[in-house]
Write a structure and sequence with these properties.
Length: 152
């Protein structure tokens, strides 16, 4: 069977799955940290320094709202990829794209303002900022999909 490139009206299910998967994995990791575990760091302070670049307590009152936000964002993106004409789902997906884009922009700023010798600097350079930029573009692709086939 010959390869057919996706048509412009094809659902961006791969982009939605990517965004939702990464947000869900991030939520699971933050949920794990609510137990008091600090993997992959040795203690709370080094975990906070590597993940945030500053000293913030990794406690349930701080982490659980973030877990809820990440899971809600994943749900919005997945739901919008299945029901593209629903305005609330589109708005939520645009919110996810905007949040990821802001995090990517903040990451670029931090590359020039944080100490280059820290774990956060290198994780931000190699992982956090590029991943947020890719996810922002993917979420925007999902948000912009209008499902032309259903519009007829």
């Amino acid at each position: 069977m010959p390869y057919r490139p996706p048509t412009p009206s094809a659902a961006p299910t791969g982009a939605a799955a990517l965004v939702a998967s990464v947000l869900t994995a991030d939520a699971a990791l933050h949920l794990y940290w609510t137990t008091g575990a600090t993997w992959p760091a040795a203690d709370d302070r080094s975990l906070s320094a590597a993940v945030l670049g500053t000293d913030v307590p990794f406690t349930p009152p701080i982490l659980l709202p973030l877990v809820a936000l990440l899971l809600t964002g994943a749900a919005f993106v997945l739901a919008h990829s299945r029901r593209p004409r629903h305005p609330l789902l589109r708005l939520g997906t645009l919110g996810v794209a905007a949040g990821l884009a802001l995090r990517a922009l903040a990451g670029v700023y931090w590359l020039f303002t944080k100490d280059a010798g820290t774990a956060f600097h290198w994780l931000n350079l190699i992982l956090y900022t590029p991943l947020c930029a890719v996810l922002a573009v993917a979420a925007l692709r999902v948000a912009r999909w209008k499902d032309a086939a259903r519009a007829r």
